[in-house]
Amino acid sequence: MTKQYTRFKDISVSERILNTVFLLTIGLAYIMALINMYYTHQGRDGKPGLSMNDIVIMYHGSNTQTRLATAITGIMEPNLKYKGDKDVILKWIHDGAEENGYRQTIAPILNRDCILCHTPSINPALPDLSNYAGVSEVAHSGGASLPALVRVSHIHLFGIAFILFFIGRIFLLCEINIYVKRIAVVIPFAAMLLDVMSWFITKNISQFAYVVVLSGALMGISMGVQILLSIYQMWFYKR
Ligand code: HEC
Predict the structure, then answer these.
(1) 97 Cβ inside 6 Å of ligand 1
(2) TM spans, by residue (predicted)?
(3) What are the C-alpha distances in Å from 225 to residues 68, 188, 218?
(4) What is the distance between the alpha carbons of residues 189 and 193, in angstroms, rounded to a whole number?
(5) What is the mean pLDDT of residues 174-190?
(6) 30 Cβ neighbours under 8 A, 6+ residues apart
(7) First CA to last CA distance, the chain
């Protein structure tokens, strides 16, 4: 005789009620998390609304919104001896602010127009523009820092693992094909891991922002399916 596992038909009404309010609350929390994500990330690229560019800037940073570009098109512009040098510097920033280009075209400009103020011995508080390391710091714009990513990752992994575990425990009481079920309980966990991993990769490779979005969506969808199917089977499913 095969062992009988617990299914929704075997649990009490009070247990079903507890399961249902838990699942509904998690569903609401997830919707709030989506809205929160929209408000915190939209408009990073200067345009209203959430776009792929906002995600790239968040993790990878941006070549167009660097401190050097802002300064050179704003308050520091009058210090340039030749107006045309502004575009030379902006192009160099846009092309990735590499050391080679710095040596060939950028250092001569900065040494002539900027380092009379931007040298640590004269003004320790200002960005040091007398060498590549200092210039590079203001010519690249951040993206997420490694410590910040590690912090957000550990909170997500701990927190979401618990949520997925409890949703999964309830979902296991559904009556569906056991092979489908075995795969279905793994998908949201795998999607979450892929999501967190791709944050770190996007920091270096901006195209991975698509993986961040797709794996995040997969986690949400698989979680949503587990929640809806569980609630449906708990109350409406007749064999
Ligand atoms: C006469 C002195 C002087 C010269 C010359 C000068 N700067 Fe500055 N720079 C300053 C001061 C002072 C600040 C701080 C301004 C502030 O914080 O409001 C500053 C700030 C900056 C910043 C930082 C802005 C930020 O994000 O906080 C950058 C980048 C910069 N300058 C670039 C340049 C470049 C490029 C040149 C040469 C074209 C240049 N500066 C020439 C005095 C100078």
Answers:
(1) no
(2) 21-39, 155-176, 183-202, 208-232
(3) 48, 10, 10
(4) 6
(5) 95
(6) 220, 223, 224
(7) 21
Total number of residues shown for the chain: 239
Torsion sign across C-alpha atoms 36, 142, 207, 190: negative
DSSP state of 4: P
| C-beta of 126 in contact with ligand 1 (< 6 A) | yes
Cα-trace Rg, the chain = 26
Q: Residue 146's Cα: distance from chain center in Å? A: 12
- Is residue 20 classed as helix, strand or coil in its secondary structure? helix
Return the SS3 of 62.
Answer: strand
Are 137 and 127 within 8 A, CB to CB?
Answer: yes
Determine if ligand 1 sits within 6 Å of the CB of residue 106: no
The finding on whether 127 has its CB within 6 A of some atom of ligand 1 is yes
80 lines ligand 1 (CB under 6 A): yes
For the chain, the domains span: 8-59+143-236, 67-139
Q: Which ligand 1 atom is at minimum distance from the Cα of 125?
A: 14
What's the pLDDT at 51?
87
pLDDT tens for each residue of 64-94: 678 898 899 889 999 999 999 999 999 998 8
Compute, in angstroms, the gap from residue 92 CA to the centroid of ligand 1. Answer: 18
